[in-house]
Amino acid sequence: MERKFLNVILLGFGFMFVFTAFQTMGNIEKTILDSITQDDPGFTGDGYTSLAIIYATLAICNWMAPSIISITGPRGAMLIGALTYLFFIVTFLFPRTWLLYVASVLIGAGAAAIWTGQGNYLTLNSDAETISRNSGIFWAMLQCSLFFGNLFVFIKFQGKTHIDLETRNVVFGALTAVCAVGIVFILLLRPTRRAPTIDDSEMAVSEAEGPMEAFRGALRLFCTSDMILLSAAFVYTGVELSFFSGVYSPSIGFTLAMGENAKQLVGLSGVFIGMGEVLGGALFGILGNKTTRWGRDPVVIMGYLIHMTSFFLIFINLPNAAPFGDTMDTSYITPSPYLAMFCSFLLGFGDACYNTQIYSMLGGKYADNSTSAFALFKFTQVSPLTFML
Q1: What gap in Å lies between CA 177 and CA 90, rounded to an integer?
Q2: I need a labelling partner for 31 at 20 to 30 A (CA). Which of 204, 223, 284, 352 fits?
Q3: Rounded to whole angstroms, how far apart are CA atoms 101 and 70?
Q4: For residue range 50-61, what is the model confidence (pLDDT) as tens digits?
């Protein structure tokens, strides 16, 4: 196997395992912390507050990520970031309110490093012909974390209304081990150098050499007309991510008209979102060369139409009160679990349409300044999540 493609596969496995642990933890954090509070009234940590701290820190630290990577390199940045994810999960074995919020700050800073490093490393291992393929393959492998993690929760929490200490420790121990496996894959990544040319002649920005120049380069890039236009798409991906990761699945569980198994559908919804993400990533990875030849517009337009369809179906399927708590209300039709799962799949597939093309575009157009480009992408994407939480 060609060395750079092998690096992409190792990168995909590393992120798949690390984010199987973290995304599963993020999905169950509110439920877990509520159960801990019931067992220990002295614990006052809140899941939504923790997530808000994570995303706020991530948004701020994205501006510093290019400077950090200019010192550590992308592999070092990803390793440091992955270790903060491991630390965050381990802290749940020793629940302390102050420790939860300290770990939330650390993982927010680590997320800026790991995601910016990932974008830079993926670009270094790609060229104009392989960036679409590599972006699709990486995205499909990453989103397998949604499938495996939510399926694990669906099985482990089945029939439980309170997550007891024994169950919590089993879950935390398993997620810690999974995250550690991901770190091993990141350690296996080999250094690489980008080919002299990767895309068209529009790439006029060169990689920053020092921390301060990297920071100034990010500011200059953020003010360019192309990046300002792209920011609209970045913001949308953040808004729809916050919807399907923090609002939609719980709303299904709160819709009691779904039937006796409404709560279990929360995890199952995550599985179907993951299936859509994986299918989209794999499809655009296989068709990467054709995507490059035809342009990325058809894929993005398809993602838009799929999302608009799913939003309409969700509107007629779920009652307006569903996001706020248990309700027996109905919407325009009798709530259907099958339609809800179909919408979950559409949300995931549409998200894959947007993100695979964004990764491919940034890795191609801004190949010589990829650290700043991906840092700005994450900053613009996660800022809406901070305010919505």
Answers
A1: 10
A2: 352
A3: 28
A4: 878 888 898 888
Angstrom distance (rounded) from CA 243 to CA 191:
37
* C-beta of residue 62 within 8 angstroms of C-beta of residue 379: yes
Residue 188 to residue 10: CA distance in whole angstroms: 7
d(CA 291, CA 293): 5
* Residues 6 or more apart whose Cβ sits within 8 Å of residue 225: none
Model pLDDT for residues 319-362, shown as the tens digit of each residue: 887 777 677 877 888 888 899 899 999 999 998 888 888 877 77
- What's the DSSP call for residue 248? I
**pTM score, whole prediction:** 0.77
Q: What is the residue-wise DSSP string for 73-97?
A: HHHHHHHHHHHHHHHHHHGGGS--H
Q: Which amino acid is at 11?
A: L
User: DSSP code of 295?
Assistant: -
What length is written for the chain?
A: 389
Phi, psi of 201 (to 5 degrees): -75, 0
Give the tokens for residue 131.
């960036």
Enumerate residues 6+ apart whose C-beta is below 8 A from 93.
169, 172, 173, 176
- Looking at every residue in the chain, the average pLDDT score rounds to 80
DSSP 125-137: T--TTTHHHHHHH
